[in-house]
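Go through this one:
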Amino acid sequence: MIGDSFSLGEEAWVSTAAEELGWGDVVNLASPGRGYLSAPRSCDFEPCSRFGGSVDLIAQAQPELVVTFGGTADGDYALDDAPSDYFAALREALPDAELVAINPVTGDSPAPYWLTLHAKNIRAAVEAVDGTFINVGQPGAGDGDTLTAETQDEIARAVVEALS
């Protein structure tokens, strides 16, 4: 699992989805501010890099499943080839792994339109390497910096439903 701050903490969707789907031990490489273009503000591991710069770190864990959740931190900037490059590198490093991407989610209401453009780019990139895209929508607004517990639960439900 690699993502942004919305994937951190015991209350995050990751814990619920992992338990319900029987993922076992999850290596969570989520960090605040991580995205396809943006490097995290801080990390508990090295390299502390954007998604594309983290492929070797992900591959070291030799996962059967890689879930990528993010894009919100990239802001209103065109993602261009960053998602394609990232998922192509992941596929090369982990040819047999299941690759999953989740659309970017915001704590703001309403969600800015550019998140729709990011989601389209991310979907095309992951599907180009025979991965799965999960659109969890924009399930609810938090305080702008975090997601509510209810929103985290809705994301988990959508992931569990899509991957069951």
In short: The CA atoms of residues 142 and 148 lie 5 Å apart. The chain has a mean pLDDT of 92. The first helix runs from residue 13 to 21.
